[in-house]
């Protein structure tokens, strides 16, 4: 289940050898092979033809692979995107449940044709318009296909749709991102992003910004975010995993609470902090998440070593 | 792209003897006419006679003209207020979709009866209750006539029992504003409003404070505001639009992106920022928006010039 750890997902352009050929060396948890906004219209056909070989290139370092398709070209993009090795299809600017249903049906057919277990590939809607926001619950409930995580209600396209200028000093997406996250979480889908990080410059390549962003996201309990520059990968992968101190405390809470239950009690204090059923539940999640991150890191390290040896 | 260039609105009473003068001098993009209900039994007949003149008077400076009606009594009052020249009605306090469906059907009939282009009359919503907020999506979807959504903050604060505290770090109804902006955009309309705390104090403030408030309102997603003070109009007209710096920047964005496309790249850097399809699209939208604002300003200038010529010929 290492594909569920997606602390840093990064877009990669399959048509640009400089990006796709080096992706495996960068250490990302997930690479998103993009057929959408980073690919000019004239290059889209060539890009579709490169997806299958790009999967093998990008996942050499142990990363999971997503593919972002184009909303107007679902019929052309999906047959080139549904292959073994792909974990998720990202459907941009999803506005209605019908769009999800259509993509789900097509993916199901393609999974059968291309030797992928039916239902394996996730279908993640990208909520980038006001219409998508108000329809979010129906969108997420539209198909039986499992969605592990999703974000939305923010970003450039959302700004275009709302007619707002980005990179201001307050959270313009407080309503849209919260509403999307709430709908997702009510359906048991983990929510990614959704925390305001002040970025007045609009720069996306500064490592110190990535460290700051990771701290804010970590504090808010967010476990994944999309990056646009390789400088963000290491700070996000490190910053969104639990720290050693958090893991140690979680284990203490776990042991203490289990002791309490055996003694027929339900609450105590350790080092001045309350230990009860809520802290216990949180500790269980922290430990699970920490182990999953460690497993993913180990998986990536082994894959990277193999790939380097092959080179 | 905002569907309407309606950066500034001012409310004037149709009984105001200086209605024409105030509307003309305001340079507002839109005038909202308030009617005053009288005790006399035939007040609606009086209103019916008064409205065509009031609409003509209010529109002399090139403004769009609306009439503001209470949603609960609007069905009866539309007959007395809807005439050629009116851009639409502002319904105050719509609580559910059924009220809107009724009003919309009445407008269908009045358009037919009074030679107004079918479907052209807009319905704008002024939301002032929790119920209106809760049902806002359903209400906004109830008629294709919906144009803009506005929150009457003072009324909503009262309805929600929120004290009129103006120094809070966080605006009490920020989330509601986000909801209304989202709902309006989702039905291809737009939201109008001012940022906190001016939205509730409605005071005369210094230029810097007002500019800052308008910028924040614009960056929240509002496309214009009902001006509580005549002095707000000029700055709203200047603020609810792309600034000169933004126009210059977005021209550069479009140029850099176009050059990137020629090299087969749909993602190019510009001063550390990434310029890709949505950024280019945003640039296109902003530049178009700036053009439409310039056109709207030109229309109002022409209306003022025309009025001046008319007055000269009378003299």
What does this structure look like?
The complex is a heterodimer of chains A (311) and B (315). Chain A is of the alpha/beta class and 311 residues long. Chain A has 2 domains: 2-240, Phosphoenolpyruvate-binding domains (TIM Barrel, Alpha-Beta Barrel); 242-311. Chain A is 46% helix and 12% strand. Chain A has helices at 17-20, 44-58, 74-77, 97-114, 130-134, 136-140, 156-162, 174-186, 207-219, 233-239, 244-262, 277-310; strands at 8-12, 30-34, 64-68, 88-91, 122-125, 149-150, 190-191, 225-227, 268-270, 273-275. In chain A, helix 3 (74-77) links the parallel strand 3 and strand 4. The radius of gyration of chain A is 20 Å and the shape is globular. Chain A starts with 7 loop residues before the first strand and ends with a helix. Chain B is of the alpha/beta class and 315 residues long. Chain B folds into 2 domains: 8-241, Alpha-Beta Barrel (TIM Barrel); 245-288 and 305-314, no CATH class. Chain B has helices spanning 19-26, 43-58, 74-81, 97-113, 130-134, 136-140, 153-160, 174-186, 198-201, 207-220, 232-239, 244-262, 277-314, and strands spanning 8-13, 30-34, 64-70, 88-92, 122-127, 146-151, 190-192, 225-226, 268-270, 273-275. Chain B has an 8-stranded parallel beta sheet. Chain B has a two-stranded antiparallel sheet with strand order 9-10. In chain B, helix 1 runs parallel beside helix 2 and helix 12 packs across helix 13 (277-314).
């Amino acid at each position: 289940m290492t594909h569920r750890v997606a602390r840093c997902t990064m877009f990669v352009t399959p048509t640009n050898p400089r990006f796709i050929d080096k992706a495996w060396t960068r250490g990302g948890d997930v690479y998103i092979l993009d057929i959408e906004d980073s690919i000019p219209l004239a290059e889209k056909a060539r890009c579709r033809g490169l997806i299958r070989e790009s999967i093998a290139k990008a996942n050499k370092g142990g990363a999971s692979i997503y593919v972002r398709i184009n909303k107007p070209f679902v019929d052309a993009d999906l047959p080139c995107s549904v292959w073994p090795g792909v974990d998720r299809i990202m459907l941009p600017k999803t506005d209605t449940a019908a769009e999800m249903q259509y993509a789900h049906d097509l993916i199901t057919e393609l999974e059968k044709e291309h030797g992928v277990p039916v239902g394996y590939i996730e279908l993640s809607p990208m909520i980038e318009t006001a219409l998508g926001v108000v329809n979010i619950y129906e969108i997420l409930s539209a198909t039986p296909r499992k969605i592990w995580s999703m974000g939305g209600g923010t970003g450039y396209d959302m700004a275009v749709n709302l007619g707002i200028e980005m990179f201001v000093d307050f959270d313009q997406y407080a309503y849209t991102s919260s509403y999307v996250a709430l709908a997702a979480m009510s359906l048991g889908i983990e929510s990614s992003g959704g925390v305001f990080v002040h970025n007045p410059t609009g720069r996306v390549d500064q490592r110190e910004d990535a460290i700051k962003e990771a701290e804010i996201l970590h504090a808010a309990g967010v476990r994944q975010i999309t990056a646009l520059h390789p400088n963000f990968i290491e700070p996000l992968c490190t910053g969104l995993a639990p720290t050693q101190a958090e893991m140690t405390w979680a284990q203490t809470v776990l042991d203490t609470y289990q002791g309490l239950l055996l003694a027929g009690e339900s609450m105590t204090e350790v080092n001045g902090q309350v230990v009860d059923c809520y802290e216990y539940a949180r500790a269980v999640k922290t430990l699970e998440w920490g182990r999953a991150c460690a497993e993913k890191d180990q998986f990536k390290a082994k894959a990277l070593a193999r790939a380097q040896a092959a080179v | 792209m905002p569907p309407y260039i309606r950066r500034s609105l001012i409310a004037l009473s149709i009984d105001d003897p200086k209605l024409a003068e105030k509307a003309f001098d305001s340079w507002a993009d839109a005038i909202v006419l308030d009617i005053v209900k009288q005790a006399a039994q035939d007040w609606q007949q009086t209103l019916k006679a008064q409205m065509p003149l009031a609409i003509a008077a209010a529109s002399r400076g090139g403004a769009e003209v609306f009439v503001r009606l209470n949603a609960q009594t609007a069905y009866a009052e539309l007959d007395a207020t809807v005439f050629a020249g009116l851009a639409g009605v502002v319904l105050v306090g719509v609580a559910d979709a059924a009220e809107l469906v009724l009003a919309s059907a009445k407008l269908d009939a009045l358009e037919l009866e009074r030679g107004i282009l079918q479907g052209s009359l807009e319905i704008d919503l002024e939301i002032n209750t929790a119920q209106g907020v809760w049902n806002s999506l359903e209400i906004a979807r109830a008629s294709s006539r919906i144009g803009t959504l506005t929150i009457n903050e003072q009324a909503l604060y009262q309805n929600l029992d929120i004290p009129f505290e103006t120094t809070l770090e966080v605006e009490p109804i920020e989330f509601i504003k986000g909801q209304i902006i989202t709902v309006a955009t989702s039905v291809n309309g737009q939201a109008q409003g001012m940022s906190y705390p001016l939205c509730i104090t409605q005071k005369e403030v210094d230029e810097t404070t007002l500019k800052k408030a308008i910028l924040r309102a614009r960056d929240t997603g509002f496309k214009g505001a009902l001006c509580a003070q005549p002095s707000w109009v000029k700055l709203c007209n200047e603020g609810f639009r792309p600034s000169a710096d933004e126009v210059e920047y977005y021209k550069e964005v479009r140029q850099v992106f176009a050059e990137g496309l020629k090299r087969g790249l749909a993602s190019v850097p510009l001063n550390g920022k990434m310029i890709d399809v949505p950024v280019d699209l945003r640039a296109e939208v902003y530049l178009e928006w700036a053009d439409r604002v310039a056109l709207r300003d030109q229309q109002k200038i022409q209306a003022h010039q025309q009025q001046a010529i008319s007055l000269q010929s009378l003299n």
